Amino acid sequence: MTLPGVLLLDAAGPEAGFLATAAAARGHQVHAATTAAAYTGYGPELRGLLAGRVVTDFDRPGRALDEIAAYARRHGVGAVLTVNEYLTGLTAHLCAELGLPGNDPASARAARDKAAMAETFTMAGVRTPYTVLVRDQAGLRAALADPRVGFPCVVKPPSAAGSAGVTVVAGPAGAAEAARAAVGMYASGGDPHILVQAYAAGTEYSIESLTQDGTTTHLAVTRKQVTAGPKRVETGHSLPVRLPPAVEAAVYRETEAAVRAAGIRHGASHTEVIVGEDGRCTVIELGARLAAGQIGVLIQHALGIDVWAALLDIALGRPAALAPTTRRYATVRFVTSPRAGRLTSLSGFPATGPGVPFVRLRAAIGSTVHEPGANSHRLGSFVVTGLDAAEVEERADAQLRRIRIEVEPHHDEPGPVPGRPARTDR
Ligand SMILES: Nc1ncnc2c1ncn2[C@@H]1O[C@H](COP(=O)(O)OP(=O)(O)OP(=O)(O)O)[C@@H](O)[C@H]1O
Ligand SMILES: [Mg+2]
To answer: Helix 137-145 crosses helix 175-183 at what angle (to 10 degrees)?
Structure first.
């Protein structure tokens, strides 16, 4: 019997690699929809896994939909998935077009465009920060003067990801630069509008959920470690977090309402929330996809749930195994550069081994590195697992302290000692 083919929209990155590997291991033919440029970055291992590819242009979604659907029909594709935030809408439309299990295409924009998300969540009664869509300077002034926004507030682009262009603004003086940073995300086209949002104070978590036939199972609550200050950059994630029962109930209630409002019927979701001191939960955003940042790896090692197999089963319309099979703890640390410049040396990076199941170093010696301002500025990451949360966190921090990074300032940038490498402990 020939198994249905599995089509990944954009197969780049570790999460897509895990999915492709899981599908191929089960005997499915794996296909990728990719741009010509992205395909040049696919490594030999991934290329070896692929039975075929359809090269398209995701910036022209109507045409991409037709091209990919035609390819899928020709190749007996029975599941369409993506882990790419930007392609969740196209994936929903493709699943609908092909009659495959997927999300509601009519609601898919609410999971991608934060202006639509704020409107949809507010209408559905999901607690979400008060949000104003700003189109020009006068709109920005009006938003900043709106008492429902107040200070601090958050300025962000409506449809970027990876914290790019997001700034927490303490007072009126910082607003103009924050707006420029958010608009800067559209340098290559797109919607030049920005969002000004009320600030939700509290502790950040994400909820990793899988929905099958409209029934949502929460796999884990993840604690997000995020920098303070104007640029909120993720420095690590840990799971599972056990919240007090009343808080957990509030978090799941808001998450479920958000998942429903975003039209998620078959697939993963990653809901980011802030829990205030009063225990109230505010939904910051939702992605109709598995979390990035190695959270899938954390779930696998802490809970023994094979998220890749589960995602495949859901996309194929088969019952997925979602019950934990182990009770451990896992954390990931993101390694960042202390300053911008040229990376001259990096040592002490952990290797995979017992208690360290995943290591990824993506910065090459000699490459340009940045102060952390977005997730794309990470030099690498590593995962630490074990039975005890405190022990795992300590081991991860100790491992991070052992990493030595040397960065030489670019000649046109001011540095601490011009022309000489700066040495740090990170
Ligand atoms: N309204 C808010 N109140 C408080 N903090 C916020 C708010 N909006 C954003 N932040 C902070 O900024 C971070 C990035 O914002 P957001 O999640 O909206 O952007 P993103 O680009 O989608 O990020 P990512 O893709 O990394 O999740 C959040 O994780 C949070 O720390
Ligand atoms: Mg986010």
So the answer is: 130
